Structure formats: structure tokens, C-alpha cells
Amino acid sequence: MVMFWVAVLAISILLYILLDGFDLGIGILFGLTGSEERRRAMMSAVAPIWDGNETWLVVAGVVLWGAFPVVYATLFSAFYLPLLVMLAGLILRGVAFEYRNKTERLRWIWDAGFAGGSLVAAFTQGLMVGALVEGLPITDGDYIGGNFGWFSPFALLCGAGLCLGYTLLGACWLVKKCQAEIRDMAYRLIPYLAVGLFVFLIVVFAFALAEHLRVIGLWLDRPYLFAFPAVGAIAALVAASSFRHHQDSVPFYMGALIFAAAFGTLAISFWPYMIPFSITIDEAAAPHSSLAFMFWGEGVFVFPLMLLYTVISYTVFRGKLKSSETHY
Amino acid sequence: MDLSALLLSRIQFGSTIAFHIIFPSFSIGLAAWLTVLEAMHLWTGRPTYRLIFEFWLKIFGIAFGLGVVSGIVMAFQFGTNWSVLSRMSGPIQGPLLSYETFTAFTLEASFFGILLFGRSRVPPWFYLFSTAMVALGTTLSAFWIMANNTWMQVPVGYVIENGRFVPNDWSQINLNPVLWVRFPHMVLAAYLTGAFCAAATGAWYLLRGIFPAEARVMLRMGLYFAAVLLPAQLVFGHFNGDYIHHYQPAKFAAIEGRWHNEQPASEVLIGIPDAETETNHYAISIPVLGSLIASMSLDSKEVGLTDFPVQDRPPVAIPFFTFRIMVGCWGIMLLIAWFGSYLIYKGRIEHYRLLLWATFLSFPLPFIAILSGWVTAEVGRQPWVVYGVLRTADAVTPFLSAQTVLVSLAVYCIVYTFIFTFGIYYIYRLLRTGPVGSLGLPPIGAVPNRPMSVINEQPETPTSRHVPAGE
């Protein structure tokens, strides 16, 4: 039962990272371009699905609360300020989708909200992951770090890294989804972003080695974990080859695979901890009666339906965006 | 933790949830009404119903969108500000709220897409089905929220193990009779909100002499519906009073403004409660009525606040007044709905401009009633967060500082004011423009899961009017 909810949680978080990842990434790219035409194309590429993507964040949040209340309570209160910033960013970028074309004069406000909101949401998410990897100051199950216990150069580095990663995913989505000029622009950006991300990974790794982060020791203890980076590396190679042959769909899937591999590496290297090195999965799990109540309804019946809905939504909106499809 | 972090956290939770509740309570009622309109359209074939449907669908979109955006915050706030509560009651509240996300959000999100621009792609009965599914989704969401809140009001079906609430009887939690009077009370309130917004809009158009056909339908449906629902709401309101009387006597005494035990008890109609002197100033009360309302008897003994230690009493003035505001709103709505319905039945309402004005101006009443009702329930529950078991003061995140909460409170206030102002402005603009018919054409620029984009009135290029949505 506990393992089932670990799996649901992992799937929800991974789906969130992949889906809202490209969507936030496009928000960041949106801020980097000035042309109204490109901006419209970018928005149209995510418009029909962004809301559904974000729902996975709520799903992950409530699964965490229901199945692992200790983690929900500890992490969310420890990340008070980053979560505040993330939520404000998500709200502003969300309404920007809807409001920006209601006005010409004030459009710059919503544009700034969309780009800025996407950027800070991505950054704070990376920052929180970084802080988790490094280990939050927790003694006897209580967070003792205060307002800025999550703050560290490593966390900031991870924040910047995730922005880069999301932007890369976003560019891959534009290649998959768009045509002509906007696609070419994304193609031009991808090499820089990919190299940037690669450099980031090396820096993070060096940093982790230099700081003697505990996670490094775990990797050495569990050599099978290197399967994940290997998958990531293969995906990167396939992406590079498809990039050269301009196979528009492939880079996105390979990008997603790289993200999944990174997620898998982290998730499994923390095993059996839920909050690294202080709270284990079993310590965090809700009582059996809670897990069973969730399992026999939402777990067995509704969760598969939710996955199905997501598939349907993406199937309906598959294929390239036509120029007439610019929704604005 | 200092005291002001607690107070600020309470202010923050109260204001963000108050902001949030406006939109769901509006959209639950509207979704149900849209279902009725679509069914009427299928049944009678009258295009007016269709026109009104398309019109209110746009407004529904904005309310729905703002509800979604403000709802995400709620999913996080239990953890950020109330970590002790979420750790202790997570095994019960967590599953209840996760059921909300799983059952309601999915249903809403997937069928809302069809609602917005699937009309040409699905058979009429399926479109009606989709409308009903959206309505069902919003209602399910309300159910789980009420289940969650009811457990905090009247905790049942649990044992305390290792400092946390461990559920041992889910059927008791979900079939709690208290839940089954509070949930209908909330749904009826939401339906009344929809009814009064429709009627007010109809009255507005009649006063301005525009869209008479649509306006009459809105006014008639809204007021007739409200005229029937309002007495039912009184019945469920009374049931709510019964559960409070039974399970939360201190809250009951606070609402009644009853400081001392009385037998038979009088009913304080109005007055100013004073916690210092433990009396009411300028009180107008009716003898015996208090016993009659509380226990349906002429000589029952009713407990007063002084029966409870000071630290176990809720603040008195807030629930006392908000309850009266709620009942007052109900009374005004009843007058308007009954008198208006009578005039419509007689076919004379359009000659009574004063009543049209009253109906038009009545649209804030259901919102005020809902907000004040919630304040009564939540403030009246104090000083407990889980009634009788966990105090609010013990539930807050222990290491939170006042400055931190002040920052977050300020951020939420600014962001919400900002998006609320624009959202309301767009709703107003839509309502003012009215149901101008582009019947048969799908909404311009409509995209599923992007509810608020249906409100585009002016397409950027005239040609895009001919582009089927989503193509």
C-alpha cells in the first residue's frame, strides 16, 4: 500500500516536471523574445494544455498530504518563502494567459507576469530540489532552519539549472509544435541550451564532490544507479542526431527522457528516504486506514482515469499548430 | 512562534479562503443552471435558452478560472502555515482533499473543454451530459470540502495515536449526519447565488430596455427558482443550528448572544455583545423564543457562554453579527423572490421598476450571505481548529515568525487584488454587453482548459470569426 502511493506520487511529480516543465520553459523563452508574432505562437503552443499540466502539481500536493502527511507538513512549512514566490509566479503567469489579449495598453504587465512568473516558478522549484539534495536542517523530525534554512549556493545553482532545463524542454516543444520561423528559432537555441545544461550538470557534480554531499556516497554504493545517467546519455545522443536531421518530434521526447532519467536517479538514490537523510518513507507514511481509503477509490479507479484524460487531451491537440490556429 | 504569527496566519487563511469561496459558490450554481438551460433548450427547442446558455458560459469561464487559480494556494497553505495541524490531521484531511482533486478536478477539467468548444463535435445529448458532468464536478468538489471542514467542526471516526488522528471509521466520517446537513446548506447557497445573479442581470436589462426576451427568461427562472429554494434553505439552516446546538454549545451561545444560562431562554434579535461585562448592550430580545428555536420547547434550559471557561469561548461579536447578516440577507432575498415571483405570475413585473431595481441591486446578497455564514461557522469554532481536540494556537507552524507571515499576507493581498480587479472588470464588461447573438458560432478564441479566454469580445482580425474554435 505504501509502495503504491510512493508510485502514484512519483508519477504525479514526474508528469508535473515534464508537462509544466516545457510550459514554464516556454514562458521563459517568451520573455527572451520581443516580437509579438513569436509571443503569440509560443502562447498558442501551450495554451490548450497548460492548466491541465499545472493540475499535476495539486495532485502531487494532496497525495503528499494524504499519504505522507509528515513530509507535507515538514517540507511545506520549511519552504515557506520559496513556495510563496512559486505560487505568486504561477498565479501571475496563469492569469497572463487569459488577460494579455484583453488589452493593448496594459499588455506589458501581463507579458512581464507571464515571463517573470514562469521564471521564478521554475527557479524556486529547482532551488527546493537543490536544498533537498543537500539536506535540510532537520533534527528529530523537526525542521530547525528558520526562514532561510533552504538557502545555499548549491540550491541557487540548482534553481538556475532547472530554469535552463525547463527552457530546453520548452524549446524542444516549440520545435515539435510549431512551424517555420518559430521552429527555426527554437532550433537555433537548442544547442546553446543543451551545452549550458551539460555544463551545469558538470558543475553540480563537481560541487557535490567538493562539498562531499552525502548523495555522492550513495551513488558509489549503488552502482546500478548509473543506468539512469546512461539512459540520459543515450537520449542525448539520439536527440543530437534527430536535431541534425530535423526530426521535429524526437528532441522533445528525448528531452523528456533525460528529465525522467535525472528524476529517477534522484528518487532512487534517496531511497528509502523521503526527505533525504532525515525522514524515511515508512516513517512518513499515513496510517494504513488512510492509505486503504485512498487506494480503493481514487487509487484504483480514478487515477487511471486521470491518466486517460491527460492522454485524450494531448491526443485532441496533437500535431503541428497551423498559422490560423494562433488563438489570439 | 509568537502570537502575532498566529494571528496573521489566521488572517491570511481567512482572507485567501474568503477570496476563493466567492468563485466556486458562483460557479457551482451557474454550472447547475447551465445544465438546466441546456436541457430546456433540448426539450423546447427555443433559441432563447441557447443564447442565454452561451452568454452565461462565458461568465462561468471567468469565475471558474479565478476559482482554479485561487484554489491552488489553498492546497499549499495547510502545510506552510499550519504544519502541526497538517501533520496531526493529515491522515484524515489529506485523503478527503485528495479525493476532491482526484474526483472533481479531473471531471471538471475534461468536460469543460467539450463545453467550451465541443458543441459541433458531439451529439446534443452528449453535450448536455458534459454540462451535467461539469456541474457534478463542481458539486463533488464542494462535497469533499464540506466533508473536510465538517470533520474539523465535529471530528468523528478517529483515534489519537502517536500524536496524530488515525481514522478508524471512514463511513462515520463521510456519512456524518452533520455533513449531510451542511453540504446541502452550502449547495443551496450556491444555487441561490446563481439564481440571484441571473435574476439581477435580467432585471438590469429590463431596466435598460435591452434584450427583453432573454431578460425575462433570466428574471423568471432566477426568481422562481430562488422563491422555491429560499424556504428550503431555511429548513437546512435550522438543521445546521441543531447540530451546532448539539455539538458546539459554546458556538451556539455566541451566535445567540446568550451570556448566562436561561430557562426558558429568550432570543436576542439584535444588540451589541460585550465580552468585558458579559452582557449585551441595547439588546432587543423576545422571551421564550430562544428555547423554542434551540430545542423546540417552551421551557428548555439553554446554556450561556459563562458556562464555559474563558479560554474555551469563541469571540462573541463576530459570529453574533455575521449570523444576523446572513439571516438578514436571506430575509431580503425572500421578499424579493416571493414578491417578484408573484408579479411575474401576474405578468406585471415590468411595471414595478422599484422591484426591478431591488432585484438588480440584490446580486451581492447571496455572496454576503455565504461569506458571513462561513465566518459564523469558522470563527464560532474558535478557539479550536479541530473542535474540542486541537486548539488553533497549537496548530500553527511552530517556527513561523510574524515578519514572514506579514510578507506572505502582503503578497497574497496584492496579487489577489490585482487579478480580482481585472476579473471583475471583465465580468462586468460581459454582463453590460449582454447576450449579443453570434448563435451557432463557437466562442471566438476559445480553448479548452483556458476558461477565461472565452471572454474575448473583439477578435483581432475579423476573419478569425469564421475559424471554428480549436482548428
What does this structure look like?
The complex is a heterodimer of chains A (328) and B (471). Chain A is mainly alpha-helical and 328 residues long. Chain A contains 13 helices and 4 strands. Chain A has helices at residues 2-32, 36-46, 50-67, 69-78, 80-99, 107-134, 153-177, 180-210, 214-221, 227-244, 250-270, 281-284, 288-316, and strands at residues 138-139, 142-143, 273-275, 279-280. In chain A, α1 crosses α7, α6 (107-134) packs across α7 and α7 (153-177) packs antiparallel against α8 (180-210). Chain A starts with a helix and ends in a 12-residue tail after the last helix. Chain B is mostly helical and 471 residues long. Chain B is built from 14 helices and 6 strands. In chain B, the strands form 3 sheets. Chain B has a two-stranded antiparallel sheet. Chain B starts with a helix and ends in a 38-residue tail after the last helix. At the A-B interface, α3, α4, α5, β2 and α13 of A face α2, α3, β2 and α14 of B.
Q: How confident overall, as mean pLDDT of chain B?
A: 86
Question: Largest sheet of chain B, described in full?
Answer: 2 strands, antiparallel
| Major sheet: arrangement of strands of chain A | 1-2
Mind summarizing the main beta sheet of chain A?
Answer: 2 strands, antiparallel
Question: How is this fold's topology laid out?
Answer:
The complex is a heterodimer of chains A (328) and B (471).
Chain A: H1 2-32, H2 36-46, H3 50-67, H4 69-78, H5 80-99, H6 107-134, E1 138-139, E2 142-143, H7 153-177, H8 180-210, H9 214-221, H10 227-244, H11 250-270, E3 273-275, E4 279-280, H12 281-284, H13 288-316
Chain B: H1 3-44, H2 47-81, H3 83-117, H4 124-153, E1 158-161, E2 164-167, H5 170-174, H6 177-208, H7 212-247, H8 249-256, E3 267-274, E4 279-286, H9 289-295, H10 317-346, H11 353-361, H12 364-381, E5 384-386, E6 390-391, H13 392-395, H14 402-433
